[in-house]
Predict the structure.
Amino acid sequence: MAAVYTHGHHESVLRSHRWRTAENSAAYLLPCLSSGVRVLDVGCGPGTITADLATRVTPGRVTALEVTDAALDLARTEVHGRGITTVDFAVGDALALAFPDATFDVVHAHQVLQHLGDPVGALREMRRVTRPGGLVAVRDSDYAAFTWFPRLPELDEWLDLYERVARGNGGEPDAGRRLLSWAHAAGFTDVTATSSTWCFADETDRAWWGGLWADRIRHSDFARLATAGGEATAADLERIAHGWRRWAADPDGWLSVLHGELICRV
């Protein structure tokens, strides 16, 4: 059941993750939040969504959870930089949450389940630490559902490579379509399933998205794992990076990222 985090924390990865906000990445959850609720943010990353959630529920508190203290420092920097004082920080494992039963009103996880070897077990743990009547909210992308134009062979190669490496690390990159089945397997019966997208189509967005993936494919942990595992050579990665830059420079370039979302009532 062990899994390796495919992306790592290279600057090109954090460039992407710091772009995420509650509005562009947790809009499905926001109508369910209210002042004073207690939230657990599992796999908080650099803390941009965490900080946004904290401003929504104040004076309620948000607990930011990451697997290492070094990863958690990224969220601490973001939260403290905004002057937010209602966030607590904890190092922990999504498969063995170190909190008593029924501790939180809302448990949230964004782009987490796809990286876990036992996503159903993680959902069971999230359910356990949520009070009766509370909510577990999860959102994960679905890589096979990514779609783009023009159809460059390098991007097809990128998708095939990413899926092979992610699965080799114990994850499931097409998590979005599986969330509902995982929630049912975890024992949830009151579940609302939705989807939403990110779309990158104007010159600025293409340059940003294509540029960060051109860097990730060469420099992030994904690149290291792909070459170390024999899935790709350095020349392959350079070719794919060039494809991302070609896509970004095309005025007709368009790309959409599909995400599955769940609101699970405990």
Notes: The mean pLDDT is 96. The chain has ten helices and eight strands.
